[in-house]
């Protein structure tokens, strides 16, 4: 069952990546296909009025974040509750000895199977919880920005297939972060529902929450997971700044379709710094999970689930790619495919946005790159 879900997700990511990759190949033989794919990807200022037939208002972006928030919250709650139920009961006085045992390679015995494998399994679940927490932070901020920061022009549109792609993306990302044990979590949740139906609310056993046990997944995280979180926060903050800059360009301009060249933060380096930040965020997620799953415990660089990038991103990207090469035997393929789609999709959109800026503004800074500083 789990293998089937993982295979399905990987196939879906590959199917989504390939058309974009072909559209990015600079070949005249593929020009028709490139324009075909770009037609679906265009939105807002780069979408021509003649293309509005199969389009929806760009303000419907808020649907993506409402969906992502509800779905991520559901998965996070279910996964954390499952982790809580499978974590051995531990008294507070024994907590620190347990942590010491964990850090020195010892295993805490519980349940019927008292093996290192069960400990590894709980550790993987802990990382999934951590990734879902990061995803939650990202989508909550994006939801807030959609309501209070961005002032979409009434004429801003996006292609209906682009809208459907967004719904797919924000449905697939959260489940990709916990797909390796989603079936277990589903069965666990189903058993709780069945127990509730059979016994009823009044007969359900209500136990006092053991907070040490509840927070145990976060205590199992190692330094590379926290490094991924730091990269995530780095991109998260910069994307927040870049979105604030974009939002300020349309203050009190709801009925005005004029566009202005953005300046400040990473905009002095690239045309789409908010896309760059997103790549960094999702990359950090890939790293956190990929490194952790390594059976050899070879710790590599990592990154997390958010959507932002810093000004020296070119350096970070090189470091991360080098770590990926070294850590290629311990990465989760599903997460890498997720990140691959994010990169391909945002590079395509950033390239088109950059061309639009150059065509629209004669005074547009010629030293800006499309998305990767000093690279592209």
Give a topology summary.
Layout: H1 2-24, H2 31-41, E1 55-57, H3 61-86, H4 92-103, H5 116-148, E2 157-159, H6 160-176, H7 182-199, H8 211-214, H9 216-219, H10 223-248, H11 273-292, H12 313-326, H13 333-360
Antiparallel strand pairs: 1-2
Helix pairs in contact: 1-2, 1-13, 3-5, 3-6, 5-10, 5-11, 10-11, 11-12, 11-13
The helix/strand series, from N terminus to C terminus, equals HHEHHHEHHHHHHHH
Work out the radius of gyration: 23 Å
- The percent of residues in helical segments reads 55-70%
Q: Walk across the major sheet and give the strand order.
A: 1-2
* Overall number of structural domains: 1
Overall geometry = elongated
Q: Structural class per helix/strand content?
A: mainly alpha
Mean pLDDT: 69
Quote the beta fraction.
under 5%
Number of helices: 13
Concise summary:
With 376 residues, this protein is mainly alpha-helical. Helix content is 63%, strand content 2%.
Detailed description of the structure:
By secondary structure, this protein is mostly helical. Mean pLDDT is 69; it is low at 91-117 and 287-330. A two-stranded antiparallel sheet has the order 1-2. The protein contains 13 helices and 2 strands, in the order ααβαααβαααααααα. The protein has one domain. Helix 1 runs parallel beside helix 13 (333-360), helix 3 (61-86) packs parallel to helix 6 (160-176) and helix 10 (223-248) packs antiparallel against helix 11. The protein starts with a helix and ends in a 16-residue tail after the last helix.
């Amino acid at each position: 069952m789990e293998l089937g879900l993982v295979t399905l997700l990987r196939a879906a990511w590959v199917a989504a990546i390939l058309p974009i990759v072909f559209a990015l190949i600079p070949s005249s033989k593929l020009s028709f296909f490139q324009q075909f794919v770009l037609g679906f990807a265009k939105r807002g200022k780069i979408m021509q009025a003649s293309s509005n037939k199969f389009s929806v208002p760009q303000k419907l972006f808020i649907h993506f974040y409402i969906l992502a928030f509800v779905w991520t919250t559901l998965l996070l709650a279910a996964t954390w509750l499952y982790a809580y139920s499978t974590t051995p009961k531990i008294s507070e006085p024994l907590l620190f000895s347990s942590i010491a045992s964990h850090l020195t390679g010892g295993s805490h015995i519980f349940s019927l199977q008292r093996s290192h494998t069960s400990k590894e399994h709980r550790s993987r679940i802990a990382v999934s919880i951590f990734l879902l927490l990061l995803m939650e932070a990202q989508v909550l901020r994006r939801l807030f920005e959609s309501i209070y920061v961005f002032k979409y022009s009434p004429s801003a549109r996006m292609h209906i297939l682009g809208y459907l792609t967004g719904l797919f993306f924000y449905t697939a990302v959260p489940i990709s972060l916990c797909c390796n044990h989603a079936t277990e979590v589903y069965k666990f949740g189903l058993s709780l529902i069945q127990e509730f139906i059979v016994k009823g609310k009044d007969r359900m056993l209500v136990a006092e929450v053991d907070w040490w046990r509840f927070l145990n997944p976060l205590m199992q995280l190692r330094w590379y997971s926290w490094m991924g979180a730091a990269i995530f926060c780095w991109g998260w903050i910069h994307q927040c700044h870049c979105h604030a800059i974009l939002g300020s360009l349309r203050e009190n301009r709801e009925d005005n379709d004029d566009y202005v060249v953005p300046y400040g933060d990473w905009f002095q380096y690239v045309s789409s710094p908010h896309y760059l930040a997103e790549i960094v965020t999702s990359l950090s997620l890939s790293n956190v999970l990929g490194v952790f799953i390594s059976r050899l415990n070879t710790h590599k660089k990592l990154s997390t689930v958010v959507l932002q990038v810093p000004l020296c991103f070119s350096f970070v990207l090189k470091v991360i790619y080098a770590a990926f090469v070294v850590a290629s035997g311990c990465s989760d393929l599903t997460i890498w495919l997720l990140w691959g789609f994010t990169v391909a999709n945002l590079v395509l959109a950033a390239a088109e946005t950059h061309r639009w800026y150059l065509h629209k503004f004669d005074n547009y800074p010629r030293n800006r790159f499309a998305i990767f500083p000093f690279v592209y």
